[in-house]
Here is the input.
Amino acid sequence: MTKPRALVLRTAGTNCDRETAFAFELAGAATEFVHINELTARRRELNDYHILALPGGFTYGDDIASGKILANELTYKLEDSLQKFVSDGKLIIGICNGFQILVKAGLLPNISGDFQTIEATLTLNDSNKFEDRWVYLKKLKSKCIWTENMGKIIHLPVAHGEGKFIPRDNKALKILKDNGMIALEYVDGSGHKCGYPCNPNGSVENIAGICDKTGRIFGLMPHPERHISFYQSPYWTKNKSSKRGEGDGFSIFASGVNFAKKHL
Amino acid sequence: MLWRVEVREKENFTDTLGESVKKDISDLGFKNKVKDVKAVQVYLIDGDLDEAEIKKVCERLLIDPVTQEYSYGGNVFDEKNKKVVEVAYNPGVMDPVEESAKKAIKDLGIKGVRSVKTAKKYIISGNLSDKDVHSIAENILYNKVIQHAVTKTSCPVTEEEPYQFKLRRVEILGAGDAKLKALSKNGQLFLSLEEMKTIRRYFKKLGRNPTDCELETIAQTWSEHCKHKTFRGKIEYTEEGGKTITIDNLLKSTIMKVTKELNKPWCVSVFHDNSGIIRFDEKNNICFKVETHNHPSVLEPYGGAGTGIGGVIRDPMGTGLGAKPIINTDVFCFGYPDYPYKKLPKGVLHPKRIMKGVVSGVRDYGNRMGIPTSNGAVLFDDDFIGNPLVFCGNVGIMPKDKSFKKVSKGELVVVVGGRTGRDGIHGATFSSGELTHESKCTSGSAVQIGNPIQEKKVADTILKARDLGLYSAITDCGAGGLSSAVGEMGEELGAEVHLEKVPLKYKGLNYDEIWISEAQERMVLSVKPENIDALIAVFESENVEATVIGKFTGDGQLKLFFDGESVCDIAMDFIHNGLPEIKRKAAWKKQIFAEPRLSASKNLTSDLLGLLSNPNIASKEWIIRQYDHEVQGGSILKPLQGIGAGPGDASITRPILGSNKGIILSCGINPDFGKIDPYWMAASVIDEALRQIVSVGGDITKAAILDNFCWGNTNKPDRLGSLVRASQACYDIAKTYGVPFISGKDSLNNEYSTGKKTISIPPTLLISCIAVMDDIRKAVSMDLKKAGNPIYLVGLTKDELGGSQYYKMKGFVGNGVPKLDAAYGKKVMQALAKAIAKGHVISCHDCSEGGLAVTLAEMAFAGGLGMDICLGAYKRPVGQADLKNETLLFSESNTRFAVEVANEAAFVREMKGVPVWKLGSVVNNGVFKISGTDKKMIINSKTSSLKAAWQKPFAKL
Here is the structure.
């Protein structure tokens, strides 16, 4: 395949669609913005694409709870298309609000395999406020295809108020660990676990991103699309002499697009 | 049937809201009395739902099954022996959750929901009396302007009766002067007697009395807020010991004059659209507007500030044929957050509450709109107690061929976006009046609550319709609502509007309320009839309402109808040009303040630590991090810089991903200088905004500035005199620097009267600066980079401690306000800009509040490095007296920078002819040392202690 087709989903309150599409384009995908109304009215079909991207934002104002209303819409109005998309082994990435949507729609971690059971949540940060800050993330050994090309530790910004990851119970947490479903954890600059603000929200076990059992559906709170270029890093003015090029987040998009090229 | 659902956090999960309310209650003075607070989310769902359905709604939608539980048949908590307060919105106040909740329930496949309302319930345990609970509720839990609190369960709001048309006329033909005055006051028209008489004359000619709607339209168009009568009128100005001069139109003779004389080819559209437009690159223009939303923020800080940013975002959206909003800025002035509750004037909210509300209001609106907030400032002074200032700005970008609009005869008037309610009635006229301790009761309807997601939908769809070429003109509904928007667009041609067609939030609004409502998130378009179906389809595709409400006629009249009945028929020419000319008196007399006598100190470390902990200087990280400054992916230089998160001078944004062209934003503001002399205040804040542009690698020949004047009551000659003086400085300084003004706004009634006493804010001018940067890769940040590098001071220090933060900390104002030699300043800035562009400088920070000492300390902790500085290296220029250590360290003289130099020889060569001194170097032992003019140590501290002092004041909010 030359160019995998990526659908960047939009609705009221989607914010990070442009930069997410830019990252996918840079990684070699052909991207299109599609409003949820076009999918639910069946004017466009999800299964015409290889990658579904749920970008960051405040869909429907995050009213009731973050991501909840779009999650509800996906579950109840697009269930058949979505199930086919997933069973065909296609790729989904949810960033920030997109991650919240995937979790609240039961698409992540989807341990039960029925897309119905809510097995985890993303809830209010321990600091009880929205925070924009840069964090270090460590790649864990996982099934996630989206972190394949990634270096061991990367630097990305988070910007959220409800990013504290909590699995439903210890059993769910154990399944996530045992099955290589935890893809990213918050660490300090040298790769060690540490508390706030390295872990910006109080997530259980410093979990920053998870995938489903197939490794093809991936959600993370940090924003890889905000570190595509060297000049987006907060410390670039200090490291002017270092190699300039892509930012740390680029490898995530490249991994997804490369996988789609090879396998879909 | 009505279902009442209560949702709570499960036992083993933190009730974050409850915990934070508990902390606020403790802070209010009930530390030992409050044991525990639980928060409950209440939903009141009315409709034909059976029990199975409501259960489904609860389980699938309203709760998070991992962390929450619910009840729909009674209380979710045992409330025995506890105090209960439930807070619900007042009738007519939009509940933002209603629309999305209704949609989501429908998505579940459940029909028959009529309404969804929400409320918050707080269950408080502890040793509190009913009186205590009352005080807690009033001070923390609700604001009576938009909400009400009950101690039992709240009721859903009952629907209003439909409106029965009845035309109302106001008797003015037979009214005498006293009656006219009373009419203006009681009707909240805020018009002067002279203006009322002009209106009476006009209607005498028509041979009839005006309708309420006609009178309101005129009052709104003639308001200070919309017409800027002070700036555009005649002023008789006398300076102490000088002649009296007459100024005809202060704006045209100072601020607009500079722009005209400089005649920059890259100024595309200035001073006539909703924001000022400049060229960005071959394909795009950018526009910038900054507004104030002071008065609404006093009454309801959260809603007032949120709609402040929401309103200014609509300015670029309504500029030309519509720009995409890409950057927000905000600047706030508050009373000190530790102001004693007991000293607070009656009817005034505590500054801490105002600050928290304003910050979260701007946060929630800006973040939800997906616009990065990249620049700002926060200042504190006791004189802002009754009148905090809330400045909000927005930058937009548009293809260059979309920069102009034109309304043509026969085009349709289309209102797009939010529905109309009673929100914000009298906002335009109200913001032009002085506040009293009663304004919370009488002007309550002037406060609006925003719905950012509605505005985001409007922004997304407008850009789609713009690119399809489906409309010919656009403007936003801001102050004055439809009256102002249609009035402006139809000024030349005339317009007719059928008010019953305007979509309403709820029944019961009369024609006049519909016309002047300031409901948020609405835009007005002018659309050719052949494009209307395609236009409506674009908006419908993303669930935005677009409604034809009238047309632009060509007869020069403003004609309004309700169900076919005429309710307004007046000439556009009278509305826009009928305002009588007023002549005001203005006088300027220098005020003398006590001059401090401070004994020379051998150790200034504690003074430096004190300054770093001064709220005006201390880290605003608490606020900055709550604002998303990286959304849209364009952030190149962020508000917090270096590994130590030091305060950046200006932000740089790359609006087009993949291009290296950038936008620099900065601001200058200094009310402390304003107290001494508004001329030098204005000069200094222009210098401040420009030096920050230079500091990050910008070029002032590519910079444009905006003015926002916030003053006391300029009907008083001394206030007006100081305004004249500040405007004169704007002309003088901008002219010398060669920097044009492209837009501006004023708020001239920032006084608060408690009956006996009037508190005026200090004269406060905000200068916002925007500059195009050709190559963002040349940017420089303020954090120290490498041990061993030399540190230079660029620019002269003078004995100018008046209005400094150093004097303020010592309890003085002083008189020696920093003056500015702009011709010299320009030379310094140009030389430094060149040195930076050539890569000789690797860190740069301008000297402002706190002087050189604070600048150096900030650079050190931002870079996590130390510094070794010797003031003895400062050689005074010929003709200047020796300066004391305190002066060298804390004077806030203009046009000065501290720089870390990479290539010393090249730097010195480039700076030839400009005063520079090598003061010391960067060290990596983590110690910050300054020795005085006699080489003896005067400051010695760990860099980490300086940082701790700087971060402390706002760390725990």
User: Anything to note?
Assistant: The CA atoms of residues 386 and 449 of chain B lie 21 Å apart. DSSP finds 32 helices and 40 strands in chain B. The two ends of chain B are 43 Å apart (CA to CA).
